[in-house]
């Protein structure tokens, strides 16, 4: 079986070529738009909101097609709904009307996402997945569908997938719902196991492979740290040395990290340790918040935002690079403001920052600038965190970046440091999230299944680690 790195490189190269060809075809076909509109609608390409709607098939009625490789799909929210785009061509595949402010989180299995709408997490099937079959993989696509499957509760917050288990956290009640990722299915209700923290707060929980659970400690607006409970609910480790604890990141070596107002809190081998923003990294009052952390594969270095103003009035212009192995933290001045939707990791562990100067900045793990790419006009973060602003999400060598002001989306080849495709949107994009369409590590092989299953009639929803939370508020 090919290594995941080799598969990712081949996949992203193929997608980059597809995107470039799609962009060229679009340029050549401008004069024939009217003639080709009917044909495009049939493939979900270049469709307007009037052509692609939430009137999707019943999940069981959808046709499945085998693809030549993984087919990433991007979901994006807007005021009034959520769209699903084809990752390479950026064509709109479906458009679903949903009222209220919406948030997006990958479910962790490479296929599904959770749409936070009102008082529920609602399952969105992006319709792309992969299955291992002996020494190779099969990949499939079908029509995206926003299901009626929900997990309901008071103020849904963070979604985390780890060790094959998904965990949903409800801020308003402190309720925790867990489920096996392989149980995600657009055609079946999702059964969850329920638990709760002692006091409701804006928090997060992570269920580990041995059945133990890490959960944050807090009450109302105050959050102080985290603890770990064994499968029977007995506390086995705890730390309240993490003021304002927020977010979650999982490193490849199994270490879990949480952001604090004075650094970060790490959990590994049954113990908590802290990494403090000390010396030149701390402010006069000791406040130096790292509220969102982003890992990279096979690296011990985490990228974090760095907020030095407890009132939240001054923009963030520095990032934090935290080595969970050595306990060292480095601050890097980007030279321009950014926000919590601006950060991501590149294929070689690069720290990527989409800043208000319109540039995508790339740094190595020591903090040295590698390159920068002009993408957008200069912009300013809106006052309300719910309002649209540029966002970035990454898969291998490829990055998807939104431009709400221009109602555009760009596909960037990070290896070549260039835009390879762009598309006009008929909505103002807000949050984005990706379903990568790959067979997750550890997925059960379908070798030996009957012909119907091997052709795509069988759907395998196994697990993939979800390494970070990309939101803040």
From TrEMBL:
The keyword Signal applies. Keywords: Signal. Residues 45-56 have a biased composition (Low complexity). Residues 455-473 have a biased composition (Basic and acidic residues). Residues 26-76, 431-473 are annotated as: Disordered. It comes from the Bacteria. InterPro entries: Quino_amine_DH_bsu, WD40/YVTN_repeat-like_dom_sf. Residues 27-39 have a biased composition (Acidic residues). Residues 1-22 form the signal peptide. The keyword Signal applies. Transmembrane segments: none annotated. SUPFAM superfamilies: YVTN repeat-like/Quinoprotein amine dehydrogenase. This is Pyrroloquinoline-quinone binding quinoprotein.
């Amino acid at each position: 079986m090919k290594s995941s790195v080799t598969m990712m490189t081949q996949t992203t190269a193929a997608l980059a070529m597809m995107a470039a060809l799609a962009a060229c075809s679009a340029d050549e076909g401008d004069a024939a738009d009217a003639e080709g509109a009917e044909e495009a609608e049939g493939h979900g390409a270049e469709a307007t909101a009037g052509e692609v709607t939430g009137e999707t098939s019943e999940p069981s009625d959808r046709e499945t097609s085998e693809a030549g490789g993984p087919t990433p799909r991007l979901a994006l929210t807007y005021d009034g709904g959520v769209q699903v785009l084809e990752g390479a061509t950026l064509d709109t595949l479906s458009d679903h009307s949903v009222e209220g402010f919406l948030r997006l989180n990958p479910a962790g299995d490479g296929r599904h996402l959770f749409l936070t709408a009102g008082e529920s997490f609602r399952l969105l099937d992006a319709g792309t997945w992969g299955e291992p079959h002996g020494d190779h993989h099969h990949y499939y696509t079908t029509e995206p569908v926003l299901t009626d499957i929900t997990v309901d509760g008071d103020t849904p917050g963070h979604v985390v997938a780890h060790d094959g288990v998904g965990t949903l956290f409800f801020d308003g009640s402190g309720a925790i719902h867990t489920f096996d990722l392989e149980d995600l299915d657009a055609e079946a209700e999702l059964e969850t196991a329920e638990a709760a923290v002692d006091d409701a707060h804006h928090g997060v929980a992570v269920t580990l492979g041995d059945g133990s659970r890490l959960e944050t400690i807090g009450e109302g607006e105050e959050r102080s740290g985290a603890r770990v409970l064994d499968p029977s609910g007995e506390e086995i480790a705890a730390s309240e040395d993490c003021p304002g604890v927020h977010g979650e990141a999982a490193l490849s070596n199994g270490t879990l990290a949480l952001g604090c107002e004075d650094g970060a809190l790490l959990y590994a081998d049954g113990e908590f340790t802290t990494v403090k923003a000390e010396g030149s990294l701390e402010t006069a009052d000791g406040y130096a918040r790292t509220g969102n952390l982003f890992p990279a594969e096979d690296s011990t270095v985490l990228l974090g935002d760095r907020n030095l103003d407890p009132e939240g009035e001054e923009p963030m212009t520095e990032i934090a690079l935290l080595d969970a192995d050595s306990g060292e933290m480095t601050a890097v001045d980007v030279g321009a403001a950014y926000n919590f939707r601006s950060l991501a990791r590149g294929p070689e562990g690069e720290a990527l920052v989409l800043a208000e100067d319109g540039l995508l900045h790339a740094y190595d793990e020591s903090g040295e600038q590698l390159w920068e790419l002009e993408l957008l006009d200069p912009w300013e973060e809106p006052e309300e965190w719910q309002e649209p602003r540029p966002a970035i999400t990454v898969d291998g060598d490829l990055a998807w970046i939104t431009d709400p002001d221009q109602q555009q989306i760009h596909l960037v080849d990070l290896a070549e440091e260039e835009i390879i495709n762009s598309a006009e949107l008929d909505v103002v994009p807000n949050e984005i999230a990706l379903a990568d369409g790959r067979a997750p590590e550890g997925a059960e092989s379908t070798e030996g299944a009957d012909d119907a299953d091997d052709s795509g009639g069988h759907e395998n929803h196994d697990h993939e680690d979800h390494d970070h939370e990309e939101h803040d508020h």
